[in-house]
Write a structure and sequence with these properties.
Length: 265
């Protein structure tokens, strides 16, 4: 049987979500309760890069391995999420949109596009504090719909930009919106990353694809009971090695529409 690895995906932690981001926002007390649940359940929380290392080498993961990951790099991470993680000594991985640091979340639509982003200085301080920083592109496009050269720049430039800021290697990437293809994955490998996180809303496991690691989206509606079910390996499926047909169909639909859905995540 596959050894399931729940990799939790958060976006925003605040009591005052931007309109349009409500579903992807958890309250600070809800987030703290989730972290306490991980502790009470004797989970071993690891940075994603460390889980990827185990997937690559085939060495067994610690019992009860879990990861806490964040996408986008919204400023509320520093205000509401980091203090809770730090006070519990809990590792985390934060994937930042490198082109909008110190700016606003301009890839989103409507009021959500005005959400403040972490500054370069804040990101650097978080890295010094032990947060693993990964890249999440420059401008959060749907990489699978971009011409190859533009996708390549989004992937490689975000690595370079973050390494300049942090003064340390950035080895993990998260696909914006989770969208990826074989070609996009190849660009991530070529850029020198050693792992990449997808979304998929499925369990990762010890045979997961290290360049499309499955994560579980945590929403405003995720209660401690829901989290408990996920930790027990229930409420989602293990990720298959091959992409699902519906993922490919979804790409065709997005391509035909030619109106990138900028508001989803
Ligand atoms: Zn994102």
């Amino acid at each position: 049987m596959k050894h399931l690895i729940p990799i939790l995906l958060y976006h925003s932690v605040t009591g005052t979500p931007a309109r349009g981001l409500e579903r992807f926002t958890v309250r600070p007390d809800q987030f703290a309760a989730h972290l306490d649940h991980l502790i009470d359940d004797d989970r071993t929380v690891l940075p994603l890069g460390e889980i990827a290392e185990h997937l690559r080498s085939g060495t067994p993961l610690p019992e009860g391995a879990v990861a806490v990951t964040f996408d986008d790099g919204l400023a509320d991470f520093a205000e509401h999420a980091w203090p809770e993680l730090r006070s519990r000594g809990m590792p985390s991985t934060l994937y930042a949109v490198a082109g909008y640091l110190g700016d606003r979340s301009r890839w989103l639509d409507g009021p959500a596009a005005e959400s403040p982003m972490l500054s370069a200085g804040q990101l650097s301080a978080l890295a010094d504090g032990g947060v693993e920083i990964g890249a999440h592109s420059m401008t959060h496009p749907q990489l699978d719909l971009l011409p190859r050269a533009r996708a390549q720049r989004e992937i490689a430039d975000s690595k370079d930009a973050l390494e300049q800021i942090l003064g340390r290697p950035v080895t993990t990437f998260a696909y914006p919106h989770g969208h990826h293809t074989r070609a996009v994955k190849d660009l991530v490998v070529e850029a020198g990353y050693t792992s990449a996180a997808a979304v998929r809303d499925m369990f990762s496991h010890d045979r997961d694809d290290v360049f499309a690691i499955a994560r579980l989206t945590i929403t405003d509606a995720t209660t401690n009971e829901d989290l408990g079910r996920l930790l027990q390996g229930r409420g989602a499926r293990p990720a298959p090695r091959r992409q699902l047909v519906r993922t490919r169909l979804g790409r065709q639909v997005r391509r035909l529409r030619q109106t990138p859905s900028r508001s989803d995540r």
